[in-house]
Amino acid sequence: MEIGILGSVEVWHDGERLAAGAPQQRCVLAVLALNAGHGVSVERLAEALWGEESPGDWRGLVHGYVSRLRKILKPAGLGIVRRSPGYALDAEVDLHVFRRLVTEARASDHPASGLFKALALWRGTPFDGVAGSSVIDRLRDGLVQEHLSVAEEWVERELELGRHRELVGDLTALCSAHPYQEKLVGLLMLALHRCGRQAEALRRYDECRRLLADDLGIDPGPELKSLYERILRSDRGLSLALADPAPVPEPAAATETRAPDSLPFDLPDFTGRVDELTRLLGTSGGIISIDGMAGVGKTALAVRAGHELADRFPDGRLFVDLHGFTPSREPVDPHAALGVLLRSIGVSSQEIPADVDERVIEWRTAMAGRKALVILDNAVDAAQVRVLVPGSPGCAVIVTSRRRLPNLDGAVPLSLEVLPPADAELLFRRVVGEDRGEGVAELVALCGYLPLAVRIAGARLRHRPRWTVADLVERLRTEQQRLSELAIDDRDVAAAFALSYAYLETEQQHAFRLLGAHPGVDIDAHAAAALLGVKRFAAEDLLEDLLDHHLLEQRERDRFRLHDLLREHALSLVSDTDHRTEADARLLDYYLAVADRAADALQPGRRRAEPQIAHPPTSMPDVFTLPTALAWFTGEHRNLSAAFAHAVRTESGRHVRDLPRHLGHFLMITHRIDELVAQQEAGLAAVQRLGDTQAQALNISQLTLTYYMACRYREAMTYAMRNLDLARELADEVGEAYALGIKGMLHQRLGEYAPAQECTQIAADLYAANGNYRMLAICIGNLGRIALATGDLDTAWTHLSKALAQSREIAERSEEASVLSGLGATLSRQGDHEHALRSLYEGLELAREVGNTDYTVRGQIKLAAGHRRAGHLDQALVVASEVVEDLRRGSLVDHLASAWNVLGSVQRELGSADAEASFGQALELAGRIGYRIEVAHALHGLGRVDEAAGHYREMGVRLPS
After folding, report:
1. How many other CB atoms are there within 10 angstroms of residue 173's CB atom?
2. Is residue 74 within 8 Å of 13, Cβ to Cβ?
3. What is the pLDDT of residues 849-860, one digit of tens each?
4. Among 1, 68, 127, 197, which is most buried by a count of CB atoms within 10 Å?
5. Which long-range contacts (CB under 8 A, 24 or more apart) does 95-100 make?
């Protein structure tokens, strides 16, 4: 086979898979392969790629994909030629081989085996990994139906031969993949019935009936209903095959011989893998390929399955270690492996042919008609395994390998991950055999839940009777020595990793080492391209290569990560030749550049300083809209935090200075205030070391706002004054306005409303003079909030209405959400409850839509107060209770104080004795941070009217309603 499309789109040459390029390039290859030997027009290729929305230069793009494919196919002796009406690919394609085999099978005397051989060519969903239009989807659907039709035909032929027992596993899998296919369900019911499993057959019908009714609103067809009724009444006609199976001749009398069994010892402490074992135990033939990283337990699983399947394969259980990844051993070549297999089934050494092809014939002939299980352990690649697979459909083969084997035709892949924490703990306890103290959960976590590491740790503890679990944990906590601790006798985690690494090509080894130096938790192709200094498509190929070798994990689409122990191993291999300093700089510049663009989308019109990017990224994700920017920040948050910490450790001053500027708004609106404080304090220290006054002013202004969010009002006021002095010293009017705006907000929280109004008004005038309409809208909104707090409702309405219009005009959606909530609160206090609630709900919905957690919480508090004033006390109680419960788990003391006050007000009107406790909570919190108006509201709620009145009078606030 040269081209494969019955699964992922692949190109093969001399047993090796060639890289077929990007998903759209594979789309072109797929369409050409589908029509192999015939010309396909450029227009048809464009339609497959883009449907009716082709880009302007679509013809040039198609020609480019064809040109690149020609280069890929050239080493294989294949070519794409000009043939009317466009291009044609002359190659052997698995689809056409499949169709030919089906035709031959139907014309033969034994169609079942031929159909099985044809179906074995299918590796998965056709065109997997291809990016194209709905045209590709329609072509894929057609091929799936073609496969399904042949599969049904094969099942019918097998049932005619009386092989119902062998079919149940395959039929169950087919029904799971195609649950609405009534014919398949009927065939499975028939097979189960003939196996004497009548109850299961009837249950299958009932499940199908419910599924059709719930999902499609229809009943099963008459054929399936009829079969159900016949099974129900145990119709004897169903027990007969459609054609009598061929008679099986009685074996000649012979002395009883014992079936070969070379399975290794089954570990008594084997733990977990319930789902994987169930899949293996469902096999009645064919190939299952178990892959996974070194030490994940592939062999143990295969051996356990082999022992449990013994009764199903009476003609033998054979095990061969192919030494694909064995220290100081070359992989066993197929010639030698065939010799081992032939001797294991009783063929004498003198009778074993010398030629490898003759050995293959001898092996397959000897296994014909047998029901045997063959475990081919530790394979290096598919080429080592292919000739060892028996041809008999009654034989099952389990292959284990550290590599994925996508080119092992007919194999069903089973990839192993590390153990779940609970199973890892249980395995450790079983290996140790006794209770050795607390700390097992941490110990297996330090082992990365890798079975080999857990076993070694358990064995070390078992052989050191004076050690406790805590002793071993202490030794494993030090990353630099963790791998050296996970070794005992000839079992060594690092050595196992080293073998996998040795099989990589030079470029892949370099990528593995640098990925180990990546400070974050995972990485995508864009960031990998920056780290490795290559184009994105090259980075994708390297990531996929390492994934195939199980040196990377992929737990989410397009995101890759190293297992913790593999990361330590990779990091230990980094050398001067990797130029890590330059790689670090490229990666940090990548995160800085993308964060800068994403921050622009998240906060349009923000006060921005151009970051210094020494290595502009060659590839960048889509972060140019608010949803995509928010999604990127959310998905990359842990990586960005780790990158910043790495910049601090490596004293990369410009990154320490610049990263917090662009991460700040995201961290603020998602209430990660403590993290933001730490970053901005480090950033300020960096700019002070650099002696950049302009940068100092910007960083101080941002830190001032963060201290405000952290409820550190007095500290923030000190920085606000310093920021104001610096802005005036630099003659920076916008900087001065920003400092005054934050100063006004601080005065509000401290209950100093007159200076709050003065600072905010001056800031608004400066912003207006400088044409900064976003910040002008925010200042006008703050003037409205000051008026609302003091009870000047008409002024509040005027300012907030103006702020709403300006926010909408410049598409400042976060501020629009906040202003809508403020307007709702104003209308509520004016008694217009219908319009108030409409505005409050609109503001809350918008805050959630833009991902602003801070404004969402404020909106919920105002909504609860609005329901209370409208007399909806039950609804007010629900909203207020929910927001208090949510805030109690965080660190937003200011909002929590406000929420307790609102909840207390609702409880008081409901006559609940809990009101006093709620007001007490609000008083304690507000008093601690100096949030004066909430102190006054709490005192008023507690009935300490004179104290509250004193606060209101000094603040210039009218009594609340």
Report:
1. 14
2. no
3. 888 888 999 999
4. 127
5. 95/5, 95/6, 95/33, 95/34, 95/126, 95/143, 96/36, 97/1, 97/121, 98/6, 98/122
